[in-house]
């Protein structure tokens, strides 16, 4: 171990200039670099991101998204080329290199000197989630005042841009919802007009009227059935009366006020005392008495034939209910009726004075029954008309009920469109109210906002370069470089300096080592060199210091300035 140390010592003393020359060069370069590099100052401000003052359960903001994303987007707007160009022009940044660089290069250089650092906080103790609660804006430059001014300008731009961005987004949301609300309102009016026009086109076929139409149909069906029953009853009653009518003699000779000649004569004599001969009642009675007197001789024959004719007609009415018109009995009966009618007609034609009286029945029962038949006939005719009207109305309501399913689809489609537009309008209105409240929050600065908690200050010490680190690294590199040069020079030298090297070369052990023999003169010269070189260096240093004191600046003043400079630098 001691032998190795001795070898290293001999090598170091033999190669000492290879160590000290690189050492001095690297240290000189380090010192020069540490003091030549101009100092840079850095100023920064801290901005706190405050949460919304009003609870979000009461009023919700329309500005959503993560704070980090919004902060990144805001930084892109603030650090845009126009804003940075204005800052460069306002504070005359990079004036020494402005002529040799483009505006884009100056902006990039300014961007590189701006620092935006988020400040995060953990949400709870046992969670990995973090949230950005604040951020720092910093700027680095050579002039402390300019650095502070630029940092303050950037902070102001950030705060103003945040306010404008939030208010702009909130106002844009309100404007968008307003336009949506107006669009849905117009859509509702349009749908209402379509529904009103549809109702005017189909007033009685709407789906909500189908039950009413069905109820009316049921009522009409009941009325139709009742009317049919009533008509059947009238028809049966007419047939019965016609059958009864066939058995009654229309020319009855019973004592009645209008057919008894004696009664009419007594009435005529009684009225003659009070009325004149030309009075209408007197003329009517006179004509009746004359007619009865003229027809008394032929009344019995015509009455018998008329009674037989009525009986045949009654039989015909009964047979028509059971047989068709081509049945032999009906055919024979029709022939008898035709012959009897022709006979009565001929007989009435041969007695013109009595025909008028013979063709008009005078039996009150017959006439009453005939009147009932005529009344029933009129009722049947009117009943049939009413039945037709009921059937027509029933058909109208049936058509409405039949068309309702076809119309219902289109009507429901219109209603769905109207309901959808109305729901969208109501939803948009509620969202618009929330957006307007959020806009009021932003305008009153009660929503999330940015507040300066640490304004930019004028830096007193430079932030870079780290001169102590440069000096320390330079010294380390100097020692390492000197040792490396010594090792390199020793390895490149093939001369023999140690006995061991000679033994290894010849393969024989060294018997003896003869040291270097120096003369007295050589020892004296070596001693003089050891004294002269340090003395010369000391004299040179003293001369330089005195020259600076008398020719440049007194040493006391220079020492104070240097101390202050070193304090600021380090």
Describe this structure as you would to a colleague:
With 570 residues, this protein is an alpha+beta fold. Among the domains are: 212-396, no CATH class; 516-569, no CATH class. It is built from 17 helices and 4 strands. It has helices at residues 2-14, 16-36, 67-78, 81-91, 103-113, 144-201, 210-245, 261-272, 280-295, 299-320, 328-350, 352-358, 364-443, 467-492, 499-506, 520-552, 555-569; strands at residues 41-50, 114-122, 130-141, 449-454. Strands 2-3-1-4 form a 4-stranded antiparallel beta sheet. α3 (67-78) crosses α6 and α9 (280-295) packs across α12 (352-358). The longest helix has 80 residues, at 364-443. It is rod-shaped and about 215 Å long. Mean pLDDT is 77; it is low at 253-257 and 350-359.
Which bin fits the share of residues in helices? over 70%
Shape: rod-shaped
Q: How much of the sequence is in beta strands?
A: 5-15%
User: What is the arithmetic mean of pLDDT?
Assistant: 77
Largest sheet: 4 strands, antiparallel
Structural class: alpha+beta
How many DSSP helices? 17
Strand order of the largest sheet: 2-3-1-4
Q: What's the number of extended β-strand segments?
A: 4
Distance from N terminus to C terminus (CA atoms, Å) equals 43 Å
Radius of gyration: 70 Å
Q: What is the H-and-E element order?
A: HHEHHHEEHHHHHHHHEHHHH
Low-confidence segments:
253-257, 350-359
């Amino acid at each position: 171990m001691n032998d190795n140390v001795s070898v290293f010592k001999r090598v170091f003393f033999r190669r000492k200039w290879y160590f000290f020359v690189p050492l001095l060069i690297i240290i000189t370069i380090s010192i020069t670099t540490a003091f030549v590099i101009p100092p840079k100052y850095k100023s920064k401000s801290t901005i706190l991101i405050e949460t919304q003052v009003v609870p979000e359960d009461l009023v919700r903001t329309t500005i959503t998204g993560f704070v980090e994303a919004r902060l990144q987007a805001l930084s892109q707007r603030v650090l845009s080329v126009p804003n940075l160009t204005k800052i460069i022009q306002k504070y005359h940044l990079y004036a020494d290199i402005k002529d040799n660089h483009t505006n884009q290069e100056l902006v990039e250089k300014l961007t590189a000197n701006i620092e935006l650092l988020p400040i995060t906080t953990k949400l709870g103790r046992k969670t990995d989630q973090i949230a950005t609660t604040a951020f720092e804006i910093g700027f680095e430059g050579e002039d402390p005042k300019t650095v502070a001014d630029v940092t303050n300008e950037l902070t102001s731009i950030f705060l103003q841009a945040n306010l404008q961005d939030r208010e702009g987004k909130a106002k844009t949301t309100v404007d968008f919802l307003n336009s949506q609300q107006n669009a849905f309102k117009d859509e509702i009016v349009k749908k209402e007009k379509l529904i009103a026009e549809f109702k005017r086109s189909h007033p009685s076929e709407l789906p909500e009227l189908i039950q009413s139409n069905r109820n009316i149909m049921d009522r009409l069906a009941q009325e139709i059935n009742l009317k049919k029953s009533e008509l059947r009853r009238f028809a049966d009653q007419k047939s019965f009366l016609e059958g009864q009518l066939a058995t009654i003699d229309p020319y009855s000779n019973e004592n009645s006020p209008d057919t008894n000649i004696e009664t009419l004569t007594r009435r005529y004599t009684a009225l003659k005392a009070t009325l004149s001969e030309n009075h209408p009642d007197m003329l009517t009675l006179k004509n009746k008495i004359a007619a009865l007197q003229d027809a008394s001789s032929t009344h019995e024959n015509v009455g018998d034939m008329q009674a037989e004719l009525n009986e045949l007609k009654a039989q015909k009415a009964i047979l028509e209910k059971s047989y068709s018109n081509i049945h032999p009995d009906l055919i024979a009966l029709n022939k008898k009726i035709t012959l009897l009618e022709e006979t009565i007609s001929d007989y009435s034609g041969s007695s013109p004075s009595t025909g008028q009286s013979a063709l008009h029945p005078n039996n009150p029962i017959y006439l009453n029954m005939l009147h009932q038949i005529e009344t029933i006939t009129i009722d049947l005719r009117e009943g049939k008309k009413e039945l037709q009207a009921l059937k027509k109305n029933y058909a109208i309501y049936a058509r409405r009920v039949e068309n309702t399913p076809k119309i219902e689809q289109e009507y429901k489609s219109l209603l769905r469109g109207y309901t959808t537009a109305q729901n969208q309008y109501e939803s948009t209105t509620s969202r618009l109210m929330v957006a307007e409240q959020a806009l009021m929050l932003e305008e009153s600065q009660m929503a999330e906002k940015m507040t300066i908690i640490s304004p930019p200050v004028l830096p007193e010490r430079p932030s870079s370069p780290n001169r102590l680190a440069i000096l320390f690294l330079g010294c380390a590199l100097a020692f390492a470089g000197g040792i490396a040069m010594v090792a390199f020079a020793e390895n490149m030298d093939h001369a023999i300096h140690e006995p061991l090297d000679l033994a290894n070369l010849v393969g024989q052990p060294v018997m003896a080592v003869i040291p270097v023999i120096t003369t007295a003169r050589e020892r004296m010269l070596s001693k003089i060199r050891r004294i002269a070189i340090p003395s010369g260096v000391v004299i040179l240093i003293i001369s330089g210091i005195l020259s600076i004191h008398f020719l440049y600046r007194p040493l006391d003043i220079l020492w104070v300035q240097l101390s202050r400079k070193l304090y600021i630098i380090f």
